[in-house]
Design goal:
Elements (H helix, E strand, L loop, with lengths): L2 E3 L2 E2 L3 H6 L3 E6 L10 H6 L7 H4 L4 E6 L8 E5 L7 E5 L10 E2 L4 E7 L33 E3 L5 E3 L9 H4 L4 E3 L5 E10 L8 E8 L10 E8 L6 E10 L8 E9 L14 E8 L1
Parallel strand pairs: 4-7, 11-17
Antiparallel strand pairs: 1-8, 2-8, 3-4, 3-6, 5-6, 5-8, 9-12, 10-12, 12-15, 13-14, 13-16, 16-17
The structure holds calcium ion (4 copies).
Length: about 280
């Protein structure tokens, strides 16, 4: 159980007398002084109770010097029979009729740790307590960002003097010898975003130019990539043979696109394509 600890230790009556005491009225949300469970506190975590709803329910009026947040659940331990009850706090008005005045004894008040945005990360651990987000981004919203690692990705083809690393291929033209050629391609897909990516695909296209146009460039192959956590990457590897190119011959461009099916809303959708010159001779 995670809680925000705001323990208050009253070391002596002298120190306590120097404090400005406020009365805090705690209402049990269940009748008859029954124990309020963590589950019940969770269900009612950020609920605000009207006085009408609280009327008739058990309450205690305690004088302490510590400011508390209204409408939160607290677990009280004053050593006076109030141990381990979750209560909702209602006000700070001075009451002349305190049931308990905390002066010279130890006391602890523990605020129940809500999950205000319901993302499964309790408020004290949540960097964005009012915006839902994944644990991989400490509870804050964010986007994956997929791209091709040009230094980690390679292609080897029948071109023996072409550079193999994407980043240094430049204008080299990889090619397949018709009909027996083979090109082995290892695309390193990386996620540099703040949250994990969903499973995605890498698409391989034949194009007349180095720009991917969905309605005119034809996809010849798809490779699956599983989910990637932030700052991680995986290889999408494939081998292309002459028949994969569906009778396309001569010079053209081979375009490689990460998140081809757009399964991920990325922080940058415009860096997903790598284009290289290609040919079937
Ligand atoms: Ca949360
Ligand atoms: Ca959050
Ligand atoms: Ca991207
Ligand atoms: Ca995308």
């Amino acid at each position: 159980m995670k809680k925000i600890i705001i323990s208050i230790i009253f070391l002596s009556g002298f120190i306590s007398m120097a404090q400005s005491h406020k009365s805090h009225v705690f209402y049990s949300i269940i009748h008859n002084q029954g124990t309020i469970t963590e589950n019940l506190a969770s269900q009612n975590c950020d609920r605000t109770f009207t006085f009408q709803q609280l009327r008739g329910r058990f309450y205690v009026n305690i004088s302490i010097a510590t400011p508390l947040q209204p409408n939160k659940f607290y677990q009280l331990d004053f050593g006076r029979g109030l141990n381990y009850y979750y209560l909702t706090y209602s006000g700070t008005n001075e009451h002349p009729d305190e049931d308990y005045r905390v002066d010279s004894q130890s006391a602890s008040i523990v605020q129940y740790d809500c999950d205000s945005d319901g993302d499964g990360i309790s408020d004290s651990q949540d960097n964005c307590p009012n915006q839902a987000g994944p644990a991989s981004n400490n509870g804050c919203p964010g986007n994956p960002e997929l791209s091709i690692d040009l230094n980690g990705s390679t292609i080897s083809s029948d071109c023996s003097n072409c550079d193999n690393i994407f980043n240094s291929i430049g204008s080299d033209r990889h090619y397949l010898v018709d009909p027996t050629g083979i090109a082995n391609i290892d695309v390193f897909v990386k996620n540099t975003g703040s949250v994990s990516s969903s499973a995605s695909t890498v698409g391989f296209y034949v194009s007349n130019d180095n720009v991917l146009q969905g309605n005119s460039d034809s996809r010849i192959k798809t490779v699956n990539v599983s989910s990637l956590s932030p700052n991680s990457g995986k290889y999408a590897s494939t081998s292309l043979f002459v028949p994969d190119f569906n009778s396309v011959g001569g010079n053209f461009w081979l375009l490689i696109k990460v998140d081809d099916s757009n399964a991920n809303q990325e922080s940058n959708e415009n860096n997903n394509v790598f284009a290289l010159r290609f040919a079937i001779n």
